[in-house]
C-alpha cells in the first residue's frame, strides 16, 4: 500500500511543472508605454492579434506553446528596437530559441497579407484621387507615387561567397530597398530583395511595376531623383534648368518628391531594427523583416495610430546617387509637355 501511494505521489510530482509568469503587456502597460515598446497603441495591438491569430495559434497546448498575442509582442519588440534576441526574450521571460521562432512566424504571417495592405492604385477612381492629392502639394500633375531607394544594413550576416554584392557605395553591407508612397505616406510598392551594390535604376528596371507601366496597366506618373532614368511615366528633375518654367518645375518636383524621403525616415524611426548596425540575419530573412515592417507601417497609418514624440519626420540619409543619362525621347517629350503646360 505504501509503495502504491509513493508511486502516485511520484507521478504527481513529475506532472507538476513550473513556468515563468508571462505577463500580458496589454495588462502591464498603458497606451503610452505600449507605443514606446511596441509602436502600436492598445487598439492597434488588439487589431494585430485578431489579424494574425489564426496563423500563430498552435492547434494544441502541448509544451505550453506561446499564445499568439505573446508571439506578436515579441516580434513587435524586436521590430521596434532592433535589440538582440537575448534582450527581447529576457524582457518577456522567453528563451532565445522561442523568441527567434516567434519573430519568424509573425514575419511570415505578415508577409502572407502583403497584398492586403500594400497596393498600387489601379482603379480610375483611386488614381484620380491620388493625383488630386499630389497636385494640391505643389501643382505637379498626374502623379500617382514618389519613388526612392533606401539601404538597410546587414550586421554579421553570412554572405560569402557573394559578399561583394552586398557592399554598397559607403562600403557597408546592405539590402537596397525600393519604396513608393502616396501623398498620405502609405507605401504602395516595396521591393526588398536586392543586395546593396545594386543601383536604384536597376531595381526599378527589373521590377514588375516597371513592366506594368510599360504595358500601360498602371496610369499616371512617378517622381524620382536624378538617379533614375527619365521615362514617359517617370519624371526626374531638369539637371541644368535655364528658364523660369524649368526652375518652377524643379521646385514643384522637389516639394512633391520629398514625401518619399520623409517616408523612409518615418519607417526607420518607427521600426528601429532597420537602422544602426542593421539586421543580424541572413539576407532572405532580413528582406522578409523589411517587408513585415512596411506592412506594419501601412497598418499603423490605416488605423490612424497616434504619433509619438520620437515619431518625427526624419529625412532619410542621402545616398549620393550618380546621375542617369536622359536619353529617352518619350520621357523628354512628356517632361517638356508638363513644363510648358503646367509651369508658366
UniProtKB/TrEMBL annotation:
It comes from Strongylocentrotus purpuratus. Keywords: Cytoplasm, Hydrolase, Membrane, Metal-binding, Nuclease, Nucleus, Transmembrane, Transmembrane helix. The chain crosses the membrane at residues 72-94. It comes from the Eukaryota. Its cofactor is a divalent metal cation. InterPro entries: HARBI1-like, HARBI1_animal, HARBI1_dom. This is Putative nuclease HARBI1. Signal peptide: none annotated.
Amino acid at each position: 500500500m505504501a509503495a502504491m501511494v509513493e508511486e502516485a505521489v511520484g507521478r504527481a510530482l513529475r506532472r507538476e511543472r513550473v513556468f515563468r509568469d508571462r505577463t500580458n503587456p496589454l495588462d502591464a502597460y498603458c497606451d503610452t508605454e505600449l507605443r514606446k515598446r511596441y509602436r502600436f497603441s492598445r487598439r492597434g495591438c488588439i487589431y494585430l492579434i485578431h489579424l494574425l491569430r489564426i496563423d500563430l495559434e498552435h492547434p494544441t497546448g502541448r509544451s505550453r506553446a506561446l499564445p499568439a498575442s505573446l508571439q506578436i509582442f515579441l516580434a513587435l519588440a524586436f521590430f521596434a528596437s532592433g535589440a538582440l534576441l537575448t534582450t527581447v526574450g529576457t524582457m518577456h521571460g522567453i528563451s532565445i530559441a522561442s523568441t527567434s521562432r516567434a519573430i519568424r512566424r509573425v514575419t511570415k504571417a505578415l508577409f502572407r497579407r502583403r497584398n492586403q495592405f500594400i497596393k498600387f492604385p489601379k482603379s480610375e477612381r483611386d488614381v484620380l484621387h491620388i493625383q488630386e492629392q499630389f497636385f494640391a502639394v505643389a501643382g505637379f500633375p498626374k502623379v500617382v507615387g514618389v519613388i526612392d531607394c533606401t539601404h538597410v544594413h546587414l550586421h554579421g550576416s553570412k554572405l560569402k561567397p557573394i559578399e561583394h554584392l552586398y557592399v554598397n557605395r559607403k562600403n557597408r553591407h546592405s539590402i537596397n530597398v525600393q519604396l513608393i508612397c502616396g501623398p498620405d505616406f502609405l507605401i504602395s510598392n516595396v521591393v526588398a530583395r536586392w543586395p546593396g551594390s545594386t543601383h536604384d535604376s536597376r531595381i526599378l528596371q527589373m521590377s514588375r511595376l516597371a513592366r506594368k507601366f510599360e504595358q500601360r496597366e498602371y496610369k499616371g506618373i512617378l517622381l524620382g531623383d536624378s538617379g533614375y532614368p527619365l521615362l514617359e511615366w517617370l519624371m526626374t528633375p531638369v539637371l541644368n534648368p535655364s528658364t523660369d518654367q524649368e526652375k518652377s518645375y524643379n521646385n514643384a518636383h522637389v516639394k512633391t518628391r520629398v514625401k518619399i524621403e520623409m517616408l523612409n525616415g518615418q519607417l526607420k524611426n518607427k521600426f528601429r531594427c532597420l537602422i544602426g548596425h542593421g539586421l543580424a540575419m541572413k539576407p532572405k530573412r532580413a528582406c522578409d523583416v523589411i517587408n513585415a515592417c512596411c506592412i506594419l507601417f501601412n497598418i499603423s497609418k490605416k488605423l490612424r495610430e497616434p504619433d509619438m514624440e520620437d515619431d518625427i519626420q526624419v529625412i532619410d540619409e542621402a545616398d549620393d546617387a550618380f546621375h542617369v543619362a536622359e536619353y529617352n525621347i518619350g520621357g523628354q517629350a512628356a517632361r517638356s509637355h508638363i513644363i510648358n503646360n503646367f509651369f508658366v
